[in-house]
Amino acid sequence: MPSRELDFPVFDVDNHMYETPEAMTKFMPKEYEGLIRYVEVNGRTKIAVKGQISEYIPNPTFDRVAAPGAQEEYFKIGNPEGKPYKEILGRGIDALPAFREPAPRLELMDELGIDRAVMWPTLASLLEERLRDDPRAIHTVVHALNEWMYEQWTFDYEGRIFPTPVITLPIVDRAIEELEWVLERGARVILIRPAPVPGFEGPRSFALAEFDPFWERVEASGVLVGMHASDSGYQRYLNEWEGVRDEFTPFTGRSGFNAIVGHGGRPIIDTMASAIGHGLCTRFPGLKIAPVENGSKWVRPLLEAMEDAYRFNPNAFDEDPVKVFKRNIFVHPFHEDDPVGLTELIGVDNVLFGSDYPHPEGLADPITFVDDLKGMADDDVAKIMGGNLARLMGVDDLVST
Q: Which of 74, 242, 267, 337 lies in disulfide reach of 333, CB 3.0 to 4.6 Å?
């Protein structure tokens, strides 16, 4: 029984699946067998990518996971007692079938009061960075993952669950092929990593003209471009200050320096600055880009930087970059952010509700997000809690459960 009685449909932009161990291996071509492997290390199962064991996800089998919302209080009030990370997480739970399969997930969504949800993969966020030196391998493993996702979840499950196939961009022709493949199978939202694109001659922005044939097809299709927080490769810059060579491990302790700069939103700031500053959103004004699970504290500093850039260098832009942002970018604030203030900054039509369920950083009871919207007009609350996302994804705003 939902904890709140709401008189509007709820469409959650940030739900997650936990992939099974076969997610990236079941459909892997024979010539790439062994690219992704699960290995035993001191009695624990780890994932190895191209022979390199990764600690990015502590338990990549997801047989045991942190309880949904385990860190909710931590993110809302902080950690004044200095509790260690494991204590904040608390005892884990066995992964529920609803975390792995769509039919039981619908039952759970009914219990939680969620009418529709965008469903993001969890483990997939480690792939591109760890294969950045092998663009062909990235395309291969991403397609294998998408094949598994389509078999396990589909890309549009009963008009209520919308899993997000991954599109990787290193080889433009293959990116277009992958896009066409997922669109033919009903995808309404795609996942593109908010980061420079790996390439044979080094990384470059996805917003450069090289990628225009891909973006032209995206715009024509009307599909929503989700840019979910990921391993964007910025650990290398932190490592230069720390004097280490570690991979990005978001679930372990960090130095004071890392605590200060590691959550400043740099990857998503650079990603959005490139999408606008490199002219992508001007060349394709119909693009709909949703930064998801990046929070919203980065928005005001970026808009202020854009205002200054346009005031001092207007000839560098074909349009006012702030106006472009408000036309093309749709932001998902964290539950601990200020969603009302965000609406005042970018407009209510550009704000999306997301719970990050069932991840520990998110909300244990997703629809309690509505409590943070007190004082807003009823129509505006309905937009944030689902109406805006329904409009962006081209689905009916009403759904019966």
A: 337
CA separation, residue 33 to residues 21, 29, 49, 246, 318 (Å) = 14, 7, 11, 26, 47
5 CB neighbour count, 10 Å cutoff: 8
Q: How far is CA 271 from CA 85, 282, 360, in A?
A: 29, 15, 26
| Mean pLDDT value across residues 360-387 | 97
Place of tokens 């560098």: 316
User: How far does Cα 200 stand from its chain's mean position?
Assistant: 26
Q: Do 135 and 199 meet the contact criterion of CB atoms below 8 Å apart?
A: yes
Q: Is residue 163 pLDDT above 90, yes or no? A: yes
At residue 401, the pLDDT reads 43
Residue 220, Cβ neighbours under 10 Å: how many?
Answer: 10
β-pairing, 161-163 vs 116-120, is parallel
Q: How far is residue 11's CA from residue 259's CA, in Å, rounded to a whole number?
A: 32
Domain boundaries 11-35+97-393, corresponding CATH code = 3.20.20.140
Burial of 231 (0-12, 13-18, 19+ CB in 10 A): buried
Residue whose C-alpha is closest to residue 395's, from 117, 108, 147: 117
Looking at this protein, which amino acid is placed at residue 397? D
| pLDDT 10s digits, 107-155 | 999 999 999 999 999 999 999 999 999 999 999 999 999 999 999 999 9
